[in-house]
Design brief:
The structure is a single chain. The protein has one domain: Alpha/Beta hydrolase fold, catalytic domain (Rossmann fold, 3-Layer(aba) Sandwich). It is 36% helix and 16% strand. It contains 11 helices and 8 strands. It has an 8-stranded mixed beta sheet with strand order 1-2-4-3-5-6-7-8. The longest helix has 16 residues.
Length: 268
């Protein structure tokens, strides 16, 4: 696993990523380190993960209103893919990263498969009360200034038990540019998102959905709307012993599913 900067974005790669890569996209106020276990369990596979602008070690946006939105993040993703010369790949997004990945399928070439975790595909108009459980801690996701105790409380809602992850998650929240949260919320309020459920239903590439069985943020009942023939193995894959972050709580099981999906997509 190596890291380097691409147009102000901190990028991690493993293996030769030009062909048959997996490109990971992290969630709101998190960073690419949330996929660190996948780089261990999927060692030797072509993997890419990067910190979205204003997150992790990436630079803050010079134009917050333009960059900190789903369309802006798709542009950042496109830059990374172009600079690395990636030709065909699976987009794997967690939470906000999943929304970015879904909408990116409308713009980017070379996507051979879509994998989402902890992501309820949004509709127009959004069914917010069906997509998410009521959770006061999630309010920080659109708040500019977050106190240490708020970040910790939010992190506690992402996982079932600490296991050393709370510090990683809360520090990621505190490192994030507050303008990223505020402008993302504003962009969503302005309707700068697409009908993601409709996008998925039109896709001809395979779509994998992984979900922590004890997620306290996303309501799994919402996935009943995913009645598409593109759904991999015709089901949502629920991961026991995990909440909103199966990739760090159950990294081995999550990585096994990712590897299996990869083999299905690329027929390896």
């Amino acid at each position: 696993m190596r890291s380097f900067m691409v147009a102000g974005k901190n990028v991690y790669t493993s293996g030769e990523v030009k062909d048959k890569a997996i490109v990971f996209l992290h969630g709101n106020s998190l960073d690419a380190q949330t996929f660190k276990y996948q780089f261990q369990f999927l060692h030797g596979m072509p993997l890419v993960a990067f910190d979205l602008p204003g997150h992790g070690l990436s630079k803050k946006a010079s134009d917050a209103a333009k960059t900190y939105s789903i369309p802006g993040y798709i542009n950042s993703l496109e830059e990374v893919i172009h600079e690395l010369g990636i030709r065909d790949f699976i987009l794997a997004g967690h939470s906000l990263g999943g929304h970015i990945a879904i909408e990116a399928t409308e713009k980017l070439k070379g996507i051979k498969g879509l994998l989402i975790m902890g992501t309820p595909p949004i509709t127009i108009p959004p069914k917010m009360e069906e997509m998410f459980f009521p959770n006061p801690a999630a309010g920080i996701l659109f708040k500019e200034t977050v106190m240490e105790e708020e970040a910790l409380e939010f992190a506690k809602n992402l996982i079932i038990q600490d296991s050393g992850h709370l510090k990683l998650l809360s520090s990621s929240v505190l490192k994030t540019d507050g303008a990223a949260r505020v402008n993302l919320g504003a962009s969503l309020g302005q309707g700068l998102f697409q009908d993601e459920l409709a996008i998925i239903h039109k896709l001809t590439i395979p779509v994998a959905v992984l979900h922590g069985q004890q997620d306290a943020i996303v309501n799994p009942e919402y996935f009943r709307y995913l009645n598409t023939s593109a759904l991999w193995e015709e089901k949502v894959h629920y991961i026991p012993g995990a909440a909103h972050m199966p990739q760090i709580e159950q990294p081995e099981e999550t990585s096994k599913l990712i590897r299996k999906f990869y083999s299905f997509v690329f027929r390896t």
